[in-house]
Amino acid sequence: MPLHNREFMSGTRGTMAVDWEQRIDVKRMREERKERALERMRDAGLGSMLLINDPNIRYVTGLAMTGGSGADHYSLLMEDGNVVHWDTADHASNQRYNCPWLNDIRYACPGLGNVPRASGRDSARSFLLDKMAGTVVDALEEYGLTSEPMGIDTGHDGLLDAFESQGVDVRPGECVSVMEDARKNKTEDEIECLRQVAAICEAGFQAIAENAKPGARESEVWGDAVREIWRHGAMAQGGYITSGPNTWPKHQANTTDRMIRPGDLVYADFYNIGYLGYRSCYYRTFSMGEPTREQKDAYETARDNLYDVLEAIEPGKTTDEIAMAFPDMEGEHADWYGADEHWQMTTNHWAHGLGLQLYEVPLIWRGLSPDHPIEIEEGMTMAVETQEPAGRQGVRVEEMVVVRDDGVEVLSQWPVEEITTIDY
């Protein structure tokens, strides 16, 4: 299927708030996300859902959770749309002032994560779990939901036991399915967030093109790129560049202090760059000076493999069908790795969902999809990535896309036809 061409003037706008142009409508995005979760929660027969997973909390509340020390923040979504949110003392105090769309913010008890782990006592851990569960039970009683099933997005045995001992009917499986289903198809505001983060990654690619040169360290060039990313209002919570022999196979330490040399291939992976929480995964390859014929041929193979997959993606198709567009075991260079099956080639050739997490539904991969297919739906967003060796170096290329009714729209725009040459 041909690639989707977006409408005239549809694309990345500025990152600042203005009154003269419609940009990302964050209020609408919060409300639409919450409504999706509510609809699916009600359909699943749940009276409430306790969300502990950071992306799930953000999806429903709009709060920019940063991981922290574990379950020192959690949110309860109820069937009438009310939300109770618990957080650390400082965070909760700030949220009461800065987040007027939430009107019931309380202090959390950290029943999971670093605090109980650091306590050194089983009795302390039991106290924290019971107290955390108790804060939620109190809210359920206040809102009249103690007799209704409560979904929970973690299967932690101790926490489940703490709720069950207080008479709560907890449903972890249903909650995980509800949130997965709510989040897999993106709204137009979510898609624009991903388009925006792709544009910010491209600013990072430009910083690499301007600063990579013989004698510069990988870490220095990556630092220049990260500075540019932060300058545009994104968070750099992942990513790296590698060069020369570090490009094949992928270096275990990612960015190192290796000096870039003439004739090197350099590739940058902007993964987990977040704009309003929405995560990128976006590869491009650079050449220090004119690439060799071998390097050009490798790049052409990787690019063609990627676009073969993009042309196979459309609503209604299943992931087992699409996965066949990825390279077979010979194309995966399985002999080089000493691998016998596709599942051993994790991360080399696949497509994975993008959203408030780096890996969301769907996953398209020869190592899994043939025996466990799912259907592709309009509004799914994903990153599609391929790679290819070039002598003792390698190339990688990746696009960020959204599934439209007539194919995929490519959100990433850094030139892809050939390796970006850096004339130093």
Automatic annotation (TrEMBL):
UniProt GO molecular function: peptidase activity
InterPro entries for this protein: Creatin/AminoP/Spt16_N, Creatinase/aminopeptidase-like, Creatinase_N, Pept_M24, Peptidase_M24B
UniProt keyword annotation of tRNA-binding present: no
Pfam families xrefs: Creatinase_N, Peptidase_M24
Spans through the membrane: none
Domain Peptidase M24: 192-404
Keywords: Hydrolase, Membrane, Protease, Transmembrane
SUPFAM superfamilies: Creatinase/aminopeptidase (SSF55920), Creatinase/prolidase N-terminal domain (SSF53092)
GO biological process: proteolysis
Residue ranges of every copy of the Creatinase N-terminal domain listed in the record: 33-108
Name of the featured protein: CAAX amino terminal protease, transmembrane
Organism field: Haloferax mucosum ATCC BAA-1512
